[in-house]
Design goal:
Largest sheet: 8 strands, antiparallel, barrel
CATH topology: Porin
Distance between the termini: 31 Å
Helix content: 10-25%
Radius of gyration: 20 Å
Shape: elongated
Number of strands: 9
Strand order of the largest sheet: 1-2-3-4-6-7-8-9
Structural class: mainly beta
Number of domains: 1
Mean pLDDT: 86
Length: 218
């Protein structure tokens, strides 16, 4: 509840400030082979014989807000994701977060269906913490931190249900291919994995907004 309450407050505030906003479930289709290889090597250092078999997609949750200005839509958002993997000697905890700025060109059909090609510019970080299975985390630990800047050319589709109050609920699907242009930049306690946040990204979510501008009052 401590996490959900501030997220709801932020989303309500964003919805009042911009044209529309909402939340999505994100599927990241990154290639995990380099990460599996490095974690397997660490498992073997700690006398393990098993291999890591992390698979995509990585699942996360995102929030975003968008404002349409004439024929252009601009906005921003962010998100987090968590995952875990295990072999016979070590476990791994994996997390990531990102923030983004987006610009697109919305086209509405009958006021109900949106098609919006665009591009997001994002900054993201990826954290991996590997530790031995024994209690206490004191026997064997390794950590890696990566940050990148990337572009995400994408296409968004949204179907919305409008109400007489001038508000709407929209159901969205947004997909694109994430391309790093700075990084990966790795830090950590050992040689890092060969891994990058490059790959197909798909967001499925719900948006709340207004079909008419809301006046700003103090």
């Amino acid at each position: 509840m401590r996490l959900i309450r501030p997220v709801v407050i932020v989303l309500v505030w964003v919805n009042c400030l911009v044209g529309y906003g909402g939340v999505s479930v994100r599927a990241n289709f990154f290639n995990p082979n380099g990460l599996n290889k490095r974690l397997t090597e660490l498992n073997q250092i700690w006398s393990g014989k098993d291999s890591f078999r992390l698979r995509s997609p990585w699942w996360g949750i995102t929030g975003r807000g968008v404002k349409e200005v004439n024929s252009v839509a601009i906005g921003g958002g962010g998100g987090i994701s968590f995952g875990a993997g295990a072999a016979d000697s070590i476990n791994a905890k994996i997390g990531s977060m990102f923030g983004s700025f987006e610009i697109g060109y919305p086209r509405w059909f009958n006021g109900l269906l949106l098609v919006k090609p665009g591009v997001d510019v994002e900054a993201g970080t990826w954290f991996v913490f590997a530790h031995s299975i024994e209690p206490g985390y004191a026997n064997f630990t390794r950590w890696f931190l990566n940050w990148e800047l990337f572009a995400l050319p994408n296409v968004e589709l949204m179907a919305r249900i409008t109400f007489q109050t001038g508000t709407f609920i929209g159901f969205t699907a947004k997909g694109g291919y994430q391309l790093p242009f700075v990084g990966p930049n790795w830090y950590g306690s050992d040689a890092p994995p060969e891994f990058s946040m490059k790959g197909f990204v798909l967001d499925l979510g719900i948006m709340f907004g207004r079909t008419t501008p809301r006046p700003f009052r103090i």
